Amino acid sequence: MARLSAAVLSLACVLVSVSVRPAAAQPVIQPRVIVVAGWENGADSGDAPGEYQDWVEREHLSETVPVRGVPGVIFRRNDDGVYGLVLRYGSSDLLTLALDPHFDLTKTYWLFTGISGVNPDVASVGSVAWARWVVDGDAVREVDDRDIPKDWPYGLYAIGAARPDTLPSAANHYGSVTDVAELTRAYPLNQGLARWAFAISRQVRLDDDPKIAAARKVWIGYPLAQKPPFILMGETLGAERYWHGASRNLWAERWVKLWTKDAGTFVMTNEESQSNQREMRLLASRQLIDPERIMVLRSASNFDMPPPGIGPTQSMGDEGPGQPLAFDNNERAGAPVVRELATHWSRYRDTVPMAQ
Known about the structure:
Elements: H1 2-20, E1 33-37, H2 53-58, E2 63-64, E3 75-77, E4 82-86, H3 92-99, E5 109-118, E6 128-130, E7 133-136, E8 140-142, E9 156-158, E10 186-188, H4 191-201, H5 210-216, E11 231-233, E12 235-238, H6 246-259, E13 266-270, H7 273-285, E14 294-303, H8 312-315, H9 323-343, H10 345-348
Parallel strand pairs: 1-4, 1-5, 5-14, 6-11, 7-12, 12-13
Antiparallel strand pairs: 2-3, 3-4, 5-13, 6-14, 7-10, 8-9
Helix pairs in contact: 3-7
GO biological process, one term: transmembrane transport
Pfam family, one: NUP
Signal peptide: 1-25
């Protein structure tokens, strides 16, 4: 009986030791490049594309990768270290990914993609632009344009400023902010990296669409709006308001100039770029990502104002016909940059590429 008890006790000790032994640590994943898309129609592949599908299919992002705390699939990868992230739950997915201990994102390059409205003064539908700044168009004072002073061009102006097209004169309008310089609405990207990416992609052959080509002809007086799709450098303006029209296009041009000290050019507008970059700036402040490795590539699905002779309400929300072309050209323009980074990782892991 004593021998049996000793044997049982010995077995129990073995079982306890096994049960409390920590599980083998999973290797930390270090993505080389993450392509970020804002949304997708239906499935990630095999049906009508959204912002994500062309990237998933053409870059063979066939393996799904779980992210802690996310119930669905938002993260995919291929065998070359290229990952795709679709923000199904908005910019908070960026924070969720960065806080997942299974990932180390400190050396990761980020390519934020998506479709936008385009400024007809500088580009055409189907064109693609590498941004040097993402400009925030949300934090504004607003007076109805029917009530503005007669010498004002529109009723939107900076908080802390006295009129449109002027910078704030005081910081205390933002409460805890004490330095006017902290009120900037322009989030700078790594311009050397943006120029490097542009140099790689600028010779890419973009696609065109016969219906889109025919629609360009009505843009008399806007020579760049009449051109076939092309690749350029220019800024992205993010604003949750879905605005449209010539007056607001003028505001956007001047707003971008104002906050970039006349160095930026307004090209693309959408509703989420500013939120994404606010999140990335927060992650950078916590040393979770490298802000010098962020790129933004937007493609034009529609114009942000109507063509001559057409009212704004007739053309508001007309991005549908140009969306497939914008999805297509976004991936075409960005793919060579992604592949260069991933396939020559030993060159770019510790040294961020730059162009003059």
